[in-house]
Amino acid sequence: MSRRRITSWTLIAALTVVCLNSVRDASADTDSAIPLPATDKEEIEKLIGTGIVHDAQPAAPLGTPESYMPPVGSSMIYQLVEKSNRTQETQTLEDTTDPTLAPGWHYSVERVGAYYFQTSSDGSLQTVAEQDLGNKVLSKFSPGEPLIIPGLKPGESRKSTLQVSVYDLSDLKKVTHSGSLDVTYTYVGTYRVTVPAGTYNAVLIRWDYAGKVGPADIKDSQYRFLAPGAGMVAMAQIRSISAMLIYNDHTKMGKLLERIQ
Fold first, then answer.
1. pLDDT in tens, 108-163
2. Nearest to 37 by CA among 186, 149, 148, 145
3. Which DSSP string corresponds to 143-168?
4. Does position 9 have pLDDT exceeding 70, yes or no?
5. How do residues 20-59 score in pLDDT, each as one tens digit?
6. Which among 221, 214, 230, 261 has a CA at the least distance from the CA of 47?
7. What percent of the chain is helix, strand and coil (3-state, nearest 5)?
8. Cross-strand pairs, 70
9. What pLDDT score was predicted for residue 50?
10. CA dihedral in degrees (139, 145, 147, 149; nearest 10)?
11. What are 206-256's pLDDT values in tens digits?
């Protein structure tokens, strides 16, 4: 057999391998859609109802934090779903003006408080402080609580331990309580979600918390569906905080985006 014939067959074989790999890669992309685990589906539907979360979609690694944030200066109106009652809540994203927490973003929640976001050196978006108007305190986290971890793949988790310092809003120089929280951050997958504001392909992030801050034992789970350009379009939260006979909070609620203005 001539060298030319050998070269031709070698070329054909190589092209065949490339084509097969392309088909295999395309199939892998299709298979990257991760069905919502049954336990998560049950918890979410208890709090936001059925018919909200639809089929799994092909899920890429998490993008940049900015891609999942609503426009700075916008207000998001949410329907609150709690014990079969529906009310409204306004959340607003603005640049942080507090010099002790800048540069970053101030995310206010009507009648509840605010969160302060900053980007870390690795490009992640973190919550570095939380204002609680009900208890009149400001909690600071070190390191910051993970909000968006760019590059994290669907199905992956990250664990971290946050040191928490709590200040009374009347005196932000004095720590009144301290403690720590263990946080497990999981990128569950991407799902088609229908809320009053519309239908989105949204990534689902689950946070699981456990720890003790001052006299309070804390256990909390949160599910947030984040859509590019819209931010959080749906949320489910299960919270249990007990400080002996002093303070108890056993919250179960859902939030659905109604509109952005």
1. 999 999 999 999 999 999 999 999 998 899 999 999 999 999 999 999 999 999 99
2. 186
3. EEEEEE-TTPPTT-EEEEEEEEEEEE
4. no
5. 343 333 333 444 899 999 999 999 999 999 999 999 999 9
6. 221
7. 15, 55, 25
8. none
9. 94
10. 160
11. 999 999 999 889 999 999 999 999 999 999 998 777 765 445 566 788 999
Q: Which two tokens stand for residue 189?
A: 């997958």
**Buried-exposed string 196-226: b where 16+ CB fall within 10 A, e elsewhere:** ebeebebbbbbbbbebebeebebebbebbbb
Distances (CA, A) of 71 to 94, 197, 235: 9, 16, 19
Residues in the chain: 261
Residue 69 burial by Cβ neighbours in a 10 Å radius (0-12, 13-18, 19+): buried
- What is the token pair recorded at 80? 């609150």
145, with CB counted inside 10 A (0-12, 13-18, 19+), is buried
